[in-house]
Amino acid sequence: MTVLDWVGQEYIPQLLDGFLNPQKRVSLIYLAIAAAITIGWSLFMSGGVARKAIDHARRGLFGRHVWMSRSAHGDYKLLLANHAVLLLIAPFFVSRMAVATALFFFLTEYLPAGTAILASASPLAIAIAYTAFLFLLDDFSRFATHFALHRIPVLWAFHKVHHSAETLNPLTVYRTHPVEAIVFSFRAIAVQSVSISLFVFLFGSSVDLVSVYGVNVILFLFNATGSNLRHSHVQIRYGARVEKFLISPAQHQIHHSIDPRHRDRNFGAALAIWDWMAGSLCVADKNMELKFGLGRNQATQTHRLRYLYFSPFGELLSSGKIGINPVNLNLRDWKKNAI
Amino acid sequence: MKKGILAGVAMTIAPAIAAPAFADDAAVYGTFPVTLQGWMGPQTNSVAYTGQIARQVLHDSLKKLAGKGNGKPNAALKAEMMLYYEGKGKNRKVLAPSSKGPFIVKQKTVGEISNPNLAGKTYKGTVSGMPNNMTGPELIKFWIGKAASANKGVDMANGYNYPQLISKFILGAVFYHQAVDNYLDEKMTAGNKPNNKPYKKGKHYTGKEHSWDEAFGYFGFPAHGLKLSPSQLYAIAKRKPEAVGFADADGDGKIDLYDEMVFGPAYYAAGADKSKKTSYAQTIGKAFLDGRKLIASAGGKALTGAQLAQLNKYARVIEDNWEKTLAESTFKYAGSCFKDLKAIKANPSDSKLLGKYIKHWGELKGFALAMQTGRKNLGDTATRLNRLIGFGPVMPNSSQVTDIDSAGNYVKDQSSGINEYMGHMLKVQKLLVDKYGIKARKNDQLSGMSEMLKKLGSGSAAEND
Question: Residues 6 or more apart from A36 whose CB is under 8 A from it?
Fold first, then answer.
């Protein structure tokens, strides 16, 4: 296969799939919904005054500064480059099926009494249980991984690439260093393998997922209710009560804020309960003036592809940071501003 | 009624379609010239495998007899089974495959084809998957004795379905064993049954021609089988009315068991091929035909080294694919047992479910033992298969046969239970996939996991929170 064949047959089709497949967060359907929510929210925030609403929406999602900034260009370059890198290294990942099968046989070996123990449960109840379990485990693992990415210096060096974004747009979700993408892959493999092997073991056969367009219904709701606005300047809040349970777009924007009070807050993806339990939750205030990035006066080179790819390695080599940072682990310090 | 009319129409038009199409066709294992040098007899066709087809019929008939018991010791039934297993009577009736509706079988007695027995060709090695170090013939005779006194051939207390055990084991211990461990093995070497001599004094075919034909006969594939789809092969074996049209190749309105019928080994190959993931029957059938053409092309001379090497390549293709059909069948019935046990757990008092489980276990055990009668020593794979499956099925009360005493009575013990045994069935499936790379995988109990993974997508590796 020539490079051109590969680009035509694999790279481009799979790149496009990312925007068409409802399993992906930036699927066009979710982006359209995010745009509609932005317009509705802008009208609401501007008291129905059209001119104000347009200005609000432009500043939040549709403006040139959102999509054409240096930072946004960095997002696009990483998206395109990562797509190629991940396509090339994916065949070397451990197979999800192999892990799921190994876990399944581990269960049958060590817990034989549990084999198909719930076989007589109703298919609907099983499907609901499986869907909920999968969502909870997936969401928790995202929180835990994200927590580790911030708290373990060697991982933070790579996760900083994501936090170097100074403007946020829905594609910032793909502003990820490839090393971090590998970490995410292992997370997904672990979650899917554990869920599937456990349920097939307990119920003795394959289990249905409650789904919409082939996507876990809960994940679909998460994506359809504006998950793309997490990476935007549209400060949608859910109110303090709801934000103890669900992470709002504004709460994730707090996570990206350079304000020291916002440091290491709101690691959660969909649910806020993990942050609440860990003491890292921070609810959103009205009209917050948030600045994003790694700090004030961030160098423009931090958006260059070469820098984004190689600076983490350089940083690790020069600092020798490979363990858990004791300063970061000072829980009292970073719990101080939690609710 | 409608089926009958359709079959009648099929029978009427079949000769018109079939006869001209298959005659002298290069894709038919039908007629090959007599190449034996110096032969002056009137024969024009050197192909002959009557003994093998007669054994296929003996096997089918024996299986039928094994299900005839009424639950009480029956010496006459046992004697009749033994007649089909090791007897030589010319007048042994064709009990199966028999005529069924418009599917009219040509032969009424086995002797019309040939007059062999099964016992003389059964695997003589020790069957390590059963107690007491029995040889193949000893094990079959032991089962015949049990079948004669079992109700319809089934022992519901110990979990044995004798017709299934006997039948599936013979598919390996006679047909597979003779083909791959005898005719396609030592008889394909230069010094054994050479091509420049008759197979036996007075025969019009050469040593290599007849050895190859005999292996073909053990596969149970119709001469025109390469022209048939897996579904058609399957329908012939099941004697379906619609099969008459494509089974009756010579258009005489009858199905000749010698060259128009599908028997056990080819039936199970076609059964796997119906999945469209494999083509065992066609691959094996083609290798047999290509090999036979190669032998014919030698014109009655001894095969050269290159010809022998090529012939052995065909033999290995046949062996590998045949072995896989046995592995596919073992896989399939391990899955059936898993499903049956699951159903029994939900409804422990249903005796029909138990009967189904015992039948499937008999097929599983028979095929697992059949796999071990080939040319190769399966080593660790055989040990694991035998340990996972055991000497008997784990019954709903967790009991399992663990031995056979000197009087031939089963010795039972408490096993670790149904749940663990269900896990064993899955391990059997995984072992067969890992060792043989089988593809059809009917009743795959782990395929659900792969479907579930597909539904979840790739996990969106680069999405960052």
Answer: none
Alpha-carbon distances of B65 from A269, A288, B93, B268, B368, rounded to whole Å: 67, 88, 12, 21, 23
Reported residue count of chain A is: 339
The H or E element that residue B414 is part of is strand B410-414
Residue A154's identity, in one-letter code, is V
- Angle, to 10 degrees, between the axis of helix A70-89 and the axis of helix A305-319? 80
Chain B residues with CB-CB distance to A269 below 8 A: 465
SS (H, E, C) B40-104: CCCCCCCCCCHHHHHHHHHHHHHHHHHCCCECCCCHHHHHHHHHHHHCCCCCCECCCCCCECCEC
pLDDT at B1 over 60: no
> Which chain A residues are Cβ-neighbours of B426 within 8 angstroms?
104-105, 108
Query: One-letter amino acid identity for A261?
Result: R
Interface touch A269/B457, C-beta < 8 Å = no
**Cα–Cα distance measured from residue B160 to residue B92, given in angstroms and rounded to the nearest whole number:** 27
Tens of pLDDT, residues B146-203: 999 999 999 999 999 999 999 999 999 999 999 999 999 999 999 999 999 999 999 9
The answer to whether residues A65 and A162 touch, using CB atoms and an 8 Å cutoff, is no
Q: Give contacts of A142 with chain B, Cβ < 8 Å.
A: 465
Please give the interface size between A and B, counted as residue pairs whose CB atoms are below 8 Å apart. 129
Find out whether B61 and B80 touch, Cβ atoms under 8 Å: no
Cβ contact B140:B166 at 8 Å: yes
Count of beta carbons in the 10 Å neighbourhood of residue A306: 9
Token pair 């149904």 is found at B418
* Complex ipTM: 0.80
pLDDT at A245 over 60: yes
Total domains in the fold of chain A: 1
Q: CA–CA separation, A199 vs A204, rounded Å?
A: 8
pLDDT at B337: 97
Rounded Cα gap, residues B212 and B315, in angstroms: 9
Over residues A130-147, the pLDDT tens digits come to: 999 999 999 999 999 999
Give the domain range for residue A170: 3-335
Which residue from B342, B449, B456 is facing A206, i.e. has the nearest CB?
B449
- Residue B168 tokens read as 């599936």
Supply B448's token pair.
Answer: 């659900």
| Cα B228 versus chain centre, distance | 18
